[in-house]
Amino acid sequence: MQNLRGAYKNSKTGLLGVSYYARYSKWTTRIKCNGTYKFLGYFSTPELACRAYLEAKVKFHPFQTLVAGSP
User: Fold this and answer.
1) Whole-number Å distance between alpha carbons of 3 and 24
2) β-strands 26-33, 18-21: how paired?
3) Which residues are bridge partners to 37 per DSSP?
4) pTM, whole model, 2 decimals?
């Protein structure tokens, strides 16, 4: 799963690792590392959530193929 380069076809957001949390009307993201999920926070826009996910992906998945800042 570290080499996943884009969102799934059935993704409602179209962004990797981003979902909408209706209870707080915010965008959220989390990443799986060593079998557990790490919560990355709530964000006002999906683009900010995606950026946080990509930065965490670089940090927690050292063998991934994405570059930070690329969608």
Assistant:
1) 30
2) antiparallel
3) 32
4) 0.74
Are 51 and 60 spatial neighbours (Cβ–Cβ below 8 Å)?
A: no
Sign of CA dihedral 44, 7, 14, 10: negative
- pLDDT tens-digit series, residues 10-28: 666 778 788 889 999 999 9
For residues 45 and 27, is the Cβ–Cβ distance under 8 A?
yes
> Across residues 42-63, what is the average pLDDT?
89
Amino acid at residue number 26: K
Q: Which pair of tokens denotes residue 66?
A: 């994405």
Q: Which of 53, 11, 59 minimizes the C-alpha distance to 29?
A: 53
* Nearest-angstrom CA–CA distance, 11 and 68: 21
Q: Give CA 31 to chain center in angstroms.
A: 6
